[in-house]
């Protein structure tokens, strides 16, 4: 029986105040013309992380950028791919202000699509990519509670208001500004003041922060 291993990528960024995912329109069979997550087969002399990094570069043109990349889950339903038995290892990637993607040789088109639109659309993604995307979204939402992952969507230096906007977009809910400020600045090791201020968001000058060394937030930032 033919058997293969693939990697699939849930690449999230925030564009025009929406949480967007990188989607590619398939140029070949199966599911020609359908939207899918970027990914592909793992080559013989390649490890999984290397395959994920290669596919990210080849299918989208996003190479050499600061991207948070972590393994999400493994998907191995017997008939998830009509070509053969395929087990896919999915990766979650997060980054701030990613550029427009460029489709690779095996994709007809690559585009940032709002996550909410894809998950609510009656036209399903190819393979089991709806499930993978939903799992990636929930992983991102959950990790924002107990880790500094939200800073992956920010520039190197950011304001508390910009960080709050990340939480609001990813969680899909408005947060009380004062409570949020108190929580994030009171979480040990989460944020480090730079000593500089900015007026880029209008209004009074706002303190700039960068990510601290904390790996876990204690207490967590609850949804």
Strand and helix layout:
Elements: E1 3-15, E2 18-26, E3 35-36, E4 39-41, H1 48-60, E5 68-75, E6 85-94, E7 107-114, H2 115-120, H3 129-146, H4 160-171, H5 177-186, E8 191-198, E9 206-211
Parallel strand pairs: 1-6
Antiparallel strand pairs: 1-2, 1-4, 2-3, 2-7, 5-6, 8-9
Overall geometry comes to elongated
* CATH architecture assignment name of the largest domain: Alpha-Beta Complex
CATH superfamily of the largest domain: Nucleoside Triphosphate Pyrophosphohydrolase
Termini Cα gap: 46 Å
Low-confidence stretches: none
How many β-strands, per DSSP? 9
Largest sheet: 7 strands, mixed
Kindly list the characteristics that best describe this protein.
Nucleoside Triphosphate Pyrophosphohydrolase, elongated, two-stranded antiparallel ribbon, seven-stranded mixed β-sheet, alpha+beta, Arc Repressor Mutant, subunit A, 2 domains
């Amino acid at each position: 029986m033919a058997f293969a291993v693939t990697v699939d990528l849930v690449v999230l960024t925030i564009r025009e105040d929406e949480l967007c995912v990188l989607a590619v329109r398939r140029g070949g069979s199966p599911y020609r013309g359908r939207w899918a997550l970027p990914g592909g087969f793992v080559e013989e002399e390649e490890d999984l992380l290397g395959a994920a990094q290669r596919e990210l570069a080849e299918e989208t043109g996003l190479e050499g950028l600061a991207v948070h990349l972590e393994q999400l889950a493994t998907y191995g339903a017997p008939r998830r791919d009509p070509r053969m038995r395929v087990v896919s290892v999915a990766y979650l990637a997060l980054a701030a202000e990613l550029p427009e993607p460029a489709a690779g040789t095996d994709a007809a088109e690559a585009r940032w699509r709002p996550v909410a639109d894809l998950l609510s659309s009656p036209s399903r993604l190819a393979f089991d990519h709806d499930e993978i995307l939903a799992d990636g979204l929930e992983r991102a939402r959950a990790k924002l509670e107990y880790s500094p992952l939200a800073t992956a969507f920010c520039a190197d230096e950011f304001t508390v208001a910009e960080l709050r906007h990340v939480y609001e977009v990813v969680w899909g809910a408005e947060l009380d500004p004062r409570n949020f400020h108190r929580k994030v600045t009171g979480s040990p090791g989460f944020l480090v003041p730079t000593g500089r201020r900015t007026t880029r968001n209008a209004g009074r000058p706002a303190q700039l922060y960068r990510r601290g060394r904390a790996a876990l937030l204690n207490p967590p930032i609850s949804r």
